[in-house]
Amino acid sequence: VAHDFGVARGAFLFLASFVLSFGLVKGALNLVAGGLADRFGRKPVLFAGWLAALPIPLLIYAAPNWWWIVAANA
């Protein structure tokens, strides 16, 4: 995959951006989801999260470059 997007082997910046963006967004959304789950219940919040995540594999598949993958993963 890295070769397809022109990412050199060992390009730490690209891999770190992927992991960092995922971790930061997941941490922030977990805080928000926790509050929403307290208010509306866990199942509706979980279901809404699943619905929101449905287009992500398509965005990754159609990504024209690495930064689209990073954004879609976040």
Instruction: Decide which structural class fits the backbone.
Output: mainly alpha
Rg, Cα atoms, Å: 15 Å
Helix content: over 70%
The major β-sheet equals:
none
N-C termini distance: 18 Å
Percent in strands: under 5%
Q: Point out poorly predicted stretches.
A: none
Number of domains: 1
- Could you tell me the mean pLDDT? 85
InterPro entries: MFS_dom, MFS_trans_sf, Sugar_transporter_CS
Subcellular location: Membrane
Transmembrane segments: 12-33, 45-69
Keywords: Membrane, Transmembrane, Transmembrane helix
Question: How do you describe this structure in short?
Answer:
The protein is mostly helical and 74 residues long.
Provide tags for this entry:
mainly alpha, 4 helices, 0% strand
Describe the structure.
- Helix 1 packs antiparallel against helix 2 (42-53) and helix 1 (12-40) runs parallel beside helix 4 (66-73).
- It is built from four helices and no strands.
- It is mainly α.
- The chain has one domain.
- The chain is elongated, with a radius of gyration of 15 Å.
- The protein has helices at residues 12-40, 42-53, 56-61, 66-73.
Topology:
Elements: H1 12-40, H2 42-53, H3 56-61, H4 66-73
